[in-house]
Amino acid sequence: MIKKKVSTVSEALLGVDNGMTFMLGGFGLCGIPENTISELVKLGVKDLTCISNNAGVDDFGLGLLLQNHQINKMISSYVGENDEFERQMLSGELDVELIPQGTLAERCRAAQVGLPAIYTPAGFGTEVAEGKETREFDGKMYVLEHAFKADFAFVKAWKGDEAGNLIFKGTARNFNPVMCGAAKITVAEVEELLPVGSLDPNQIHIPGIFVQRIFKGEKFEKRIEQRTVRKRD
């Protein structure tokens, strides 16, 4: 059986280079590949295209890459709480493609299963559809959206085994599963890395065939983007 375990995040990111396109899982700050992003900052790779639901916050997640001006283009659904993302977008420093959230997920999924494109009703009649092929099905108009093409997909899982099988926890099961296998190389960082056969097959969310490299992450901060609690009496 092929063992996909690598010892360090630096080993997991071998082959990463300037000008590449990356998919990064997570939603807000939930389920983001923290160790991978920190290593990308250290590597200093530039002119990146990043496909992710959003770009974290100013001092965490993809916001760290934005601060270093390592990202040339963001393909995402939400500017979110990141002031630097907003500033770079409005100033023209950053090329931003904002697309509907469901379309973002389906373009990832299309790449995952080998479909070249999908038809979706989202965005028809708006700026989203400008310059794109449209077609009518059963009296309803749809927009043709192409599957993403990425060099690496970086995902974060709760548990994984050395064959690359993954289990996600709670809300972290968001964009991570659809990005697995949607790029040339999928790298998974996990909180707990187990020997092959340790995971209950009925609980596995993503089979190892979609993962090329897996490593155990360290010191996950797991920040909360907006913490709202009731004041103590």
Automatic annotation (TrEMBL):
Q: Name one Pfam family in it.
A: CoA_trans
Q: Gene3D superfamilies recorded for this chain?
A: Glutaconate Coenzyme A-transferase (3.40.1080.10)
The molecular function terms in GO held by this entry are: CoA-transferase activity
Which top-level group of life is the source organism from?
Answer: Bacteria
Which UniProt keywords are present, listed alphabetically? Transferase
Record-stated family: Belongs to the 3-oxoacid CoA-transferase subunit A family.
- The protein in question is named 3-oxoacid CoA-transferase subunit A
Which organism is the protein's source? Zhouia amylolytica AD3
